[in-house]
Amino acid sequence: MAAVQLASMPQLAEARSEDDDWTGLKDKSERRKRQTRLALRALRKRKAAQRAAKLESGSGNTTLETRYDKGLEQKSDFGFGSNIVIPSYVTNSGRLVPERYLYPISRDHLLPLLEYNVYRASITNLLIVGHLHLIHETCGFRGSIIIFPNPYQGVSVPPTLRRTALQQSVPYPEWIDLIPSPQMRDNAIKTQHLFTNKELAADLLTGIMGQEDRKDAGILVWSDPWDPSSWELTEGFVKKWGFLVQGCDDLVLSTNYWRKIRGERPLVLTL
Q1: Inter-residue contact 232 to 259 (CB < 8 Å)
Q2: CB of 14 within 8 A of CB of 41?
Q3: Span 129-153, pLDDT tens digits
Q4: How would DSSP label each residue in 200-252?
Q5: What is the pTM of this model?
Q6: What are phi and psi of 190, to 5 degrees?
Q7: Domain assignments of the chain as residue spans, ordered by start
Q8: Burial grade of 59 (CB within 10 A; 0-12, 13-18, 19 or more)
């Protein structure tokens, strides 16, 4: 039997087999189905060609820049910005950074944005207070991240991160210093026997820590991590970790500010 030349007709330009030939079909449903299939193929081909043309036209004068988080490039009142501290995909010289130095998970598992913000905020505050050595230990990313030098070395610590009288008088785990609320730091010191930093991190960084069971007991960070007004407590966090935020008027005020923006009712702490 002679081969059927399906592509000889303009309306069958995207036909790949006899099953794509809708001409002569009496069944309206089947005819429409084949026509739709061919139309989608043509559409995908056009879009692919447009993307290729756009990339080609912009390749001649494209400058490779290090990827920074735009929201953290702004200078603060303390004279420094909170540049992202995770290595970028592309350096200024155009050299690609190996993916193993970027994230401890594969590319097909994207970090949840909210958890990433908390992670970024935690690292930023640790760098500000000079606890570079705690980053791997606290976050559990042993050997996954290379950070040097400390961009905040020699910079004065913001008032919100300066040690309280309690911090100066009793021993406590250093990771507590990353908390931007002085009262919450004091609460964490007083109740440190009730929990571990890994338990808290498991709730704040569920996906990043490899936990599949979400408890919705996290914190949201919307702006400068050293400023309590950038932090928002979730209802789940208050229910589980209420003893940590008792008396933290700064965090409650901030939380209700962000909730009001979204049109949500104020969060009332009944501790």
Answers
A1: yes
A2: yes
A3: 988 777 655 445 444 455 556 666 6
A4: HHHHHTTTTTT--S-----EEE-S-TT-GGGEEE-HHHHHHHGGGSTT-HHHH
A5: 0.55
A6: -70, -30
A7: 6-58, 98-261
A8: exposed
